[in-house]
Amino acid sequence: MAQMGFFIDVTKCIGCKTCVVSCKDKNDLEVGRNFRRVYSFESGSFPNPILRHLSISCNHCDHPTCVENCPTTAMYKRKEDGVVVVDHDKCVGCRYCEWNCPYGAPQYNEALGKMTKCDTCLDLREKGEEPACVASCPMRAIEFGPIDELRKKHGDNADIEGLPSSSITHPNIVIKK
Ligand code: SF4
Ligand code: SF4
């Protein structure tokens, strides 16, 4: 299995949220439901203030606490690429996965009464296209691919201030900061 993951370049991201908007558009997400989110961090002080932005969705973790705590096995990790998805035939909308994800990735669909989340744009990938966030980023700050290749290219850091420790769920992301 080639585990897939995201590379996020914080040094390139300008916080424009085009990735968030393109994801919302592609997945038809109403206000408040965001598969991808951008967090901004301030540090330093005058005359050298620093403002950085981190774009993040689901990290399709090696130890997915969302999967481990789903009482119906609706939340599962695909064998073929390690992408974590929800089976709506099994989901009862209890929201345990949401409470157990340290990244706030699962997003509850009130109208459906089911959990929803980033699936890495599986339908686009099947057509040979990139996930919407990757394709739309004007700064080319997001890459998607086999995590081993991304780590070879960019290193293996998955931690940044403001995020929970990567030791909890072993997320399949690489962050350049
Ligand atoms: S589209 Fe790119 S630059 Fe804009 S917020 Fe998302 S990751 Fe950052
Ligand atoms: S980021 Fe959250 S929802 Fe995604 S696999 Fe990890 S624990 Fe599950």
TrEMBL record:
One of its GO terms (molecular function) is metal ion binding. Pfam families: Fer4_11 (PF13247). InterPro entries: 4Fe4S_Fe-S-bd, 4Fe4S_Fe_S_CS, DMSO_DmsB, ET_IronSulfur_Cluster-Binding. The keyword Metal-binding applies. Keywords: 4Fe-4S, Electron transport, Iron, Iron-sulfur, Metal-binding, Repeat, Transport. Residues 4-34, 47-80, 82-111 form the 4Fe-4S ferredoxin-type domain. Its cofactor is [4Fe-4S] cluster. Electron transfer subunit of the terminal reductase during anaerobic growth on various sulfoxide and N-oxide compounds. NCBIfam families: DMSO_dmsB. This is Dimethylsulfoxide reductase subunit B.
